[in-house]
Amino acid sequence: MLKIEIWNIVFTIINLLVLFVAFRLVLFKPVQRIIAKRQEEADEEYEEAKQAKAEAMDLKAQYEESLENAKDESKKTIQEARKTADQEYQRIVGSAEEAAKQLKEDAEKQAESRKEQILKKAEKEIADMVVDAAGKMAGSKSGAEFDRALYDEFLNKAGDEA
């Protein structure tokens, strides 16, 4: 049967206590320190990641705000450009209308001047014809006959010129 000796049990308990203390000193404490150190590193990395994420979110918000401001600014710039272009268009059209009006007035003045020159020239030619006819008639006829001949010659010359 099985014999139980006290000394065996005592030595076994002592051996177990020595092994427990040895494992605790040599194995458990260093392993716990390593685990604690790794846990601290993981916590630090987690905090750094949280901070990096927060910074990234802030940068994203700033970027979106800048993008929105850029869109607003581009809209304003386009509106100002359209307004300026419209003003320039109106100025050019007004200038063109003024130039056309001036050209029309100049052409009308020139036509009127030309008309007056032609009328003066025609009057002079008519007067010359009348004088020539009068001179010719004065030498050959007198009175009513002279007036009739002068009138006929005038009509002939005027018909030839026209």
Describe the 3D structure.
It is built from two helices and no strands. 1% of the residues are buried. The protein is mainly α and 162 residues long. The radius of gyration is 62 Å and the shape is rod-shaped. The protein has helices at residues 6-140, 143-161. It has one domain. The mean pLDDT is 86.
Give a summary of the structure in a few sentences:
Helices cover 95% and strands 0% of the residues. It is an all-alpha fold and 162 residues long. The chain has one domain (7-161).
Q: Which range does the strand content fall in?
A: under 5%
Uncertain runs: none
How many structural domains does the protein architecture include?
A: 1
Helix-strand pattern: HH
Distance between the termini: 169 Å
Largest sheet: none
Helix % is: over 70%
Provide the gyration radius in Å. 62 Å
- Given the helix and strand composition, which structural class is it? mainly alpha
Number of helices: 2
Mean pLDDT, to the nearest integer, reads 86
Overall geometry comes to rod-shaped
* Total strands: 0
